[in-house]
Amino acid sequence: MSLPTAALETASTARSTVSNPSRTTLSGVTLDAAVDDLAALLDGAVIRPADPDWDAARAAWQLGVDQRPVAVVLARSEADIARTLRLAARMGIRVAPQGTGHGAAAVGDLSDAILLRTAALSYVVVDAVQRTATVGAGATWGDVLAAAAPHGLSGLSGSSGTVGVVGYCLGGGLGWLGRLHGLGAHSVLSARVALPGGAVVVASASEHADLWWALRGGGGAGVVTELTVRLYDVPRLTAGSLWWPRERADEVLKAWSRLLPSLPREITSTARVLRFPDIDALPPAIRGGEFILVQAAVAGSPWLADRLLAPLRALGPAMDDVAPVSPDALGQLAMDPPDPSAGVAEGVILSSLDDAAIESWLAALDSDDCSGVVAAEFRHLGGALAPGSVDDAALTGIDGAVAAVAVAPATPETSLATAAAMVDVALASLGPWIGDQQYANFVERPTSERALVGVAVDRLDTVRMTYDPDGTVVRRHGPTD
Ligand SMILES: Cc1cc2nc3c(=O)[nH]c(=O)nc-3n(C[C@H](O)[C@H](O)[C@H](O)COP(=O)(O)OP(=O)(O)OC[C@H]3O[C@@H](n4cnc5c(N)ncnc54)[C@H](O)[C@@H]3O)c2cc1C
What class is the 15-117 domain? Predict the structure, then answer.
């Protein structure tokens, strides 16, 4: 593949000069002209601010984020990704890879960057014998679960099938089989990675092992074009929810928290306070209602699930839909909204969860300051999610007892800023129990990487000096402090 002539003409320039692409002159070449050259080479397309589909092209799944890049590249091939990186390196601009845009809130300013959308690269190839899935950069967990389930296999997906495999694994990957099999990042066997300048390398335990290490929960370096993840045998899976009215939240949360230390790795569960909107699309039983739910995935028989959940069933749930399920049902278990929306979701890791923490959490959720928080959950950690389960990953585990997440949508009555303030109040109520380590996938504001991966940050810096010394590829949570 030959380079655009215009892009070849120049190299170094300050990134700050790119704010107005039509006027930026690099040895006589405008960025607009270079992007025109790129457009002519792509299998996909370039969308620019004047194009009619500009707003659709730049929209993230998180609709509250107003992404304003120099241009959007809709990649259709690995070569498109390499071409974009080659142009960016030569024009002195950055490239922000994005599959779904679930993580867009933590990316920051893109005014000197091309937004590289990979959604069209959504292929999934399952090798049922080797128990692997090889996926394009734009594949979602829903794509993987659907392809793996007919083989009795599952990947380490999180709560939502709409989340991208790549972004999820780069940030860690906390999912329904996590306490048994660990973080999604730890299932990454190899990756094809396009580097600034356009070269593509393979990163695995035996090739570019430093880059492979960085991709496993450390955000990585370069642009992943393809990922191979391990799949897991799930011969029996029992999952579902126990529902009580919201008034029972204190009792249910305390019973759940007391049960946690005794639970084996086969069960991963969450305890969630949910407020459902009063809309026709919902069944009458939950429409406009408020509930406390315990949701669980048990890698085992209904008999095992019955035994583990018995202390909670003794509290007499109003609804109970725990039953044997196919592995691809995990993508819907949490009932996360299937469509893009605007709102704020933030999470923290708690060192411990005791009665006082639960009381403080519920008092905050009951206050007017949190009236727009529609989901507030604790997720059980430990088991294979604990640090030390592996040592060849930038994120070796999550150091805490539970994760706490609060979600507030933006609505006509609640601005994004108000939603953020409500989420802050909810999480602040857990202040005394919040640990030192935070978890990248649940932190939506750009955050110091040191708080996310601890001492691994120094080794990550070294890896990035090797593979992306100029910081061409934009990452969530940006440069370290
Ligand atoms: C509804 C919902 C449910 C969620 N549930 C969970 C959960 O259960 N467990 C959990 O751990 N997290 C969960 N998350 C958080 C989610 O894992 C992160 O937001 C993650 O970053 C999303 O990845 P993505 O690829 O979908 O998003 P994107 O926004 O497309 O990507 C996020 C980031 O990943 C990097 N990236 C993406 N593609 C590439 C690439 N090809 N090459 C290099 N870097 C790339 C970039 O830095 C990008 O900014 C959830 C988020 C939402 C909105």
Answer: alpha beta
